[in-house]
Specification:
Blueprint lengths: L9 E4 L4 E3 L5 E11 L5 E8 L9 H7 L2 E5 L3 E6 L5 E8 L2 E5 L4 H8 L3 H9 L5 H8 L1
Antiparallel strand pairs: 1-3, 2-3, 3-4, 5-6, 6-7, 7-8
InterPro entries: GAG-pre-integrase_dom, PolX-like_BBD
Length: about 140
């Protein structure tokens, strides 16, 4: 969800219901569209919502509905394609919030490449178990 029209690559403006925020205020859904990194990697069905203070992304929808893998550690997050494990988006943790970078640049991938490759390999082998749990298993 976003309130910023500039985040959309495509947008179909059409009022269609509303959302309730954590403080019980409500916002109108003004449309929906796609966003992404301006290449072949798009995130679809993003809602355009009035009054939203922050852009929000549903991890459940990405993982369950859109066929992406989502990985978090204490420094960064990564979204990859389930079919080929290609890294699509990377985000960094800032003040306990993960900020997703839609422009897939090498500087954004640095948090992933700095991870121990063996840890990452075991993360993928053991059903994408949390990295902290893997580290506890190793000790």
């Amino acid at each position: 969800m976003t309130v910023d029209k500039n985040k959309f690559i495509t947008l179909q403006e059409k009022e269609s219901g509303g959302v309730t925020y954590g403080d019980n205020n409500k916002g109108k859904i003004l449309g929906s569209g796609t966003t992404g990194n301006n290449s072949n990697t798009l995130i679809e069905d993003i809602l355009y919502v009035e009054g939203l203070k922050y852009n929000l992304l549903s991890i459940s929808q990405l993982f369950c509905d859109k066929n992406y893998n989502v990985f978090f550690n204490n420094e960064c997050c990564m979204i990859s394609d389930k079919n080929n494990n290609e890294t699509l988006f990377v985000g960094k943790r800032n003040n306990n919030i993960y900020i997703l970078y839609l422009d897939h640049t090498s500087s954004n991938i640095s948090c992933i490449s700095s991870n121990d490759n063996l840890t990452w390999l075991w993360h993928r082998r053991i059903a994408h178990v949390n990295v902290d749990k893997l580290n506890r298993l190793a000790t």
